[in-house]
Automatic annotation (TrEMBL):
Gene3D superfamilies: 1.10.287.130, 6.10.340.10, Histidine kinase-like ATPase, C-terminal domain (3.30.565.10). It catalyses: ATP + protein L-histidine = ADP + protein N-phospho-L-histidine. Residues 205-257 form the HAMP domain. The lineage of its organism: Bacteria, Pseudomonadati, Pseudomonadota, Gammaproteobacteria, Methylococcales. One of its GO terms (molecular function) is phosphorelay sensor kinase activity. The keyword Signal does not apply. InterPro entries: HAMP_dom, HATPase_C_sf, HATPase_dom, His_kinase_dom, HisK_dim/P_dom, HisK_dim/P_sf, Sig_transdc_His_kin-like_C, TCS_sensor_his_kinase. SUPFAM superfamilies: ATPase domain of HSP90 chaperone/DNA topoisomerase II/histidine kinase, HAMP domain-like, Homodimeric domain of signal transducing histidine kinase. Pfam families: HAMP, HATPase_c, HisKA. This is histidine kinase. Keywords: Kinase, Membrane, Phosphoprotein, Transferase, Transmembrane, Transmembrane helix, Two-component regulatory system. It is found in: Membrane. The chain crosses the membrane at residues 184-207.
Length: 480
């Protein structure tokens, strides 16, 4: 079942808070109870000491236990005065039960059900014994359960105060205090959980808002709305995610524009030679143009232009996908360049273009490259000079070493290229509307292929204005 990130964040924060609050509640309650028990035990010991002191004073005043024996009202009076926290006021059932029992019987024998329902104070758990441990106030059947506290007169033991076992927390006020504190802890825990739930809800909303915007923007991007952008409101991970999303959207928008331009350019490039072919064939069919060798040569030229365009498109598509096969070996790029210059010599002679190669290398420089792809790159550059340089022009090729790179410079003569057009020369299908135009048969893919080949060799290629008045192509390849 689908759950939004806000719900997950809310539940995570709330669960974390519940665990923390529950742990704090358990720790605080245990710590409080332990400390309170120490306090109660200390207070009970104080009351026992007070009771022993009161009995010792009574013994000294009356010179013995004779007047206290069988005087239950006096015994109860001593017990009440020994309570430092107020007068002893036993419930009426205690007095009624005590009056119905023998004078020395203490504590009153209350019903077991009553004992379970009510708290038995300390005064109802003590017995008084003489020095010989005979009973003054007490029950013989409970002697074995007593914890005896001696009563001294001077240095002589004159009796014992027996304390029956029982929980240290046995006073009503103490129990009520414990219950009040426990209830307070519960309400504090409930309040903290409520505040935490509100805070978790707020945090889930705040943290979920940018994620919701990213989700909506991703859906828009998925249906082709590449102009979608996200606001960057922070510098944290979410802000970085929004920044990366905007970069992705911009890249997709540019890719979509390139694709559309690519399709339009291909359609345009194919339409021109196809229209020419169609016109020539229709002229031949209608008998307007005789089927001569010149007509066939013209048709063949149009077919070859289509073939070159298709081959350039194929090569560019392969290089874009990284599918061009590269068989890199230790290669001397100058040897490959000299071979290509030899192959293009007839073309340069036909155009009356002088070619000069300046080798400024002190020693041969070997690079790790594919000689066939290097030859393809060289030939595209040489073909551009043949196609676009004016007749009786010139081409100057300079090869030099710059640090750990070998540098190539192809400088040709007029016509030149406007400065604003130089960065666009390596874009596919880009051609300037001047003498370097499609009238020479180019499709604007050669330099794009050259750039892909140079980058595949970890090199760089760029264009500049030539000192000879034309175009200069500079290329650098690393030497290993």
């Amino acid at each position: 079942m689908y759950k939004s990130i806000r719900v997950k964040l809310f539940l995570t924060l709330l669960l974390s808070t519940l665990i923390v609050v529950a742990g704090m509640y358990a720790f605080m309650r245990e710590s409080f109870e332990r400390g309170f028990m120490v306090f109660v035990e200390t207070r009970q010991k104080e009351r026992i000491d007070n009771l022993i002191e009161a009995l010792a004073d009574y013994y000294a005043k009356d010179q013995g236990w004779r007047k206290l024996a069988n005087n239950k009202s006096k015994w109860i009076e001593i017990l009440s005065k020994a309570n430092p926290h107020g007068h002893y006021r036993p419930p009426p059932a205690w007095l009624k039960q005590a009056a119905a029992e023998p004078a020395a019987a203490w504590p009153p024998k209350l019903p077991e059900a009553y004992s379970k329902r009510h708290f038995i104070p300390l005064e109802m758990r003590v017995m008084l014994l003489k020095a010989d441990k005979s009973i003054l106030f007490g029950r013989p059947e409970r002697l074995s359960h007593l914890s005896l506290k001696p009563i001294y007169q001077g240095n002589q033991s004159v009796g014992f105060l027996g304390v029956l076992p029982g929980k240290s927390l046995n006073q009503l006020g103490e129990i009520q205090f414990m219950e009040q504190q426990t209830e307070a802890f519960v309400w504090i825990a409930v309040l903290m959980i409520s505040l935490s739930a509100s805070l978790a809800l707020l945090l889930a909303y705040i943290l979920g808002m940018p994620l919701k915007r990213i989700t909506a923007a991703s859906k828009a991007l998925a249906i082709g709305r590449y102009d979608t952008r996200l606001p960057i409101d922070s510098h944290d991970e979410l802000g970085q995610l929004a920044h990366n999303f905007n970069d992705l959207a911009a890249a997709l928008e540019q890719a979509e524009q390139t694709r559309r331009r690519w399709v339009a350019d291909i359609s345009h490039e194919l339409r021109t030679p196809l229209s020419v072919l169609r016109g020539e064939l229709e002229a031949l069919q209608d008998g307007i143009r005789p089927l001569t060798r010149d007509a066939v040569d013209s048709l063949y030229g149009d077919v070859m232009r289509l073939n070159r365009l298709a081959e350039d498109l194929y090569q560019l598509a392969l290089s874009d996908q990284g599918a061009l096969s590269y068989r890199k070996t230790q290669t001397d790029p100058l040897v490959t360049l000299e071979e290509d210059l030899t192959a293009f010599a007839p073309e340069f002679e036909r155009r009356n273009i002088s070619v000069k190669l300046k080798n400024r290398l002190v020693e041969p420089s070997i690079i790790h490259a594919d000689p066939d792809r290097l030859s393809q790159l060289y030939r595209n550059l040489l073909k551009n000079t043949v196609n676009y340089t004016d007749k009786a022009g010139q081409l100057l090729i300079t090869v030099s070493r710059v640090a750990d790179k070998i540098s190539f410079s192809f400088q040709d003569s007029a016509p030149g290229v406007m400065e604003e057009d130089l960065p666009k020369l390596f874009d596919r299908f880009y051609r300037i509307e001047s003498s370097r135009s499609r009238s020479h048969g180019g499709a604007g893919l050669g330099l794009a292929i050259c750039r892909n080949i140079a980058e595949a060799h970890n090199g760089a290629i760029y264009a500049a204005a030539s000192p000879l008045g034309g175009l200069e192509i500079k290329m650098e390849l690393p030497v290993y």
